[in-house]
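## Example record

The block below lists the input lines for one assembly entry, exactly as stored, with component labels intact.
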Amino acid sequence: MLHFKRGVLPVYKTVLRQELNTWREELLTTVAVPLTFFLAFGLGLRGYIHDIDGVSYMTFLAPGLITLTMLFEAYRNGGWGMWLDRWLQKMIDEYRIKPVTTSDIIVGKILGGFTEAIIKGAVVALVLKLIAPISFAPINILPYLLYMLPGSVLFTCMGAMVGTVCAKPDQIAQVQTVVITPLLYLGGMFFPIRVLPPWLLPIIHWLPTTALFEGGRWALLKGQIQGFDIALLWGAAILCFGFTVRLFNDKLSE
Amino acid sequence: MENTPAIQVQALSKSFKTLKALDNVTFSVPSGSVFCILGPNGAGKTTLLRILTSVTQPSSGHVKIEGYDLAKDTLLIRNKIGVVAQENRFDKYISIWHNLTLHAQMHGLSKKVYEPRITDLLKKVDLYDRRDEMADHLSGGMQRRVALMRALIHEPTLLFLDEPTTGLDPEARIFIWQTIEALKGKATVILTTHYMEEADRLSDRIAMLNHGQIVAEGTAQSLKQALAKLGQYELVLLTPQAAEIKEKLTSLNMLTSVQAIDEYCLQFQAEQPEAMQAVLNAVPAEQVLRIGQSLPDLEDVFLSIARESRHAAF
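Predicted structure tokens for the full assembly:
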């Protein structure tokens, strides 16, 4: 049973408060990566790449950069946030002497990481809207969120699992390099996935990141929703959420 | 539950892979008392405290806190306890004030209740004006004082302090001692330490833990008396002739040890009654101010017990 008021909510508010207290540094690091990609690929390669599926390469790229920010921040908040509290600050031990359950703690942290990811995605969207020729109907944000909500939960949970298990910070970075980065880059952020070799497509098709980048792009630009993508993402997010709560409970009872 | 012990521990054991951190530990703590768990580094004190505060699961055994089963009524018990851990556990990315309000909220206190309490507690440690600073801006001693105040916000009936004065300056140490003394009778305090002076000053009862086992338990006085029976005596002279008398006593060849504490005072160990008679014959009566059994300090007790348990182990 969850204790929302005295368990989930205080942990959730603390995650957000941590970010609020460091918002200047956070803003800079949040915007730096997508902006660099936009300048390097969007502006640098635009002369060499023709329109893709009826839109310019810059427009094609922009939703992917917003999605990248959300997913990357979700993983970062889940992973580093958990690692910091479990292994360095020992705040998880401090929470565990309060009258709350371990499920309250992990749910609060996942929700916190998820909220931050959504906020940071919105910040990058605003910046890109100012500098890029990206236009979409405001109503398209709703179908786009149908993709991004489970996507952010999924990546926050993946981060939280890594932060729960890995005692050393370099292990989190290793998982990021070996697992997260390929997942992100193979999902069609920079290119349409149909250009990949045919033998790779069945695998790529089942990656949640493909649903997030490909599906999310057309949801934002054209308001399109693919039922398979949505089912895949929500299914993966729910499974991963349940598994993260279970893993956290198991690890903390050792 | 007036007469229910604050804590009942029955046959508690904890193993980490091949290491047995706690081995069949049994004791009980009367309500309202200060109970000290004394032991060297690695004795199992922190593991015991982590189990009593429900952070770590025991491998076997039972714990009851104020009559409630720790394994079943965990959340209810957590509402009754306050804990100051060995390390200063603060969220370094939020302010001191928010660290404290977080604790209060997680104990289900309303803003109307916790705000004046936190204000009072921070004023008590002269840190109210620094409430908006991050916790790691404070010195270790200040952080420890705030940690103690945090543990008191929800007015616990049981307070667990894990080596609360380790590494602190005398001023911070005395503050913590005074706070514990003020709690006597109002709350039960479980204190782990490796400072004998601290245990002697603060505790009503002491359990000595070594290699995961309780090797002795009792009041500081009873533990000292138990060792005093081994025949430790003190001789206080009227004139500064301790060195001279020491030579005389050593030459008797009947005493286990003879030690001059200063120019007027000697300590010796006489395990047979005839040895004592020989001492009285050797020292002129007009030079003696006082002679009697000397009570060892807790450190002597602990070292003696640790030595015995080490011999038993080999």
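The interface with chain A takes residues 53-55, 57, 75-76, 78-79, 81, 83, 85, 87, 89-95, 98, 102-103, 105-108, 134 of chain B (CB under 8 Å). The mean pLDDT of chain B is 88.
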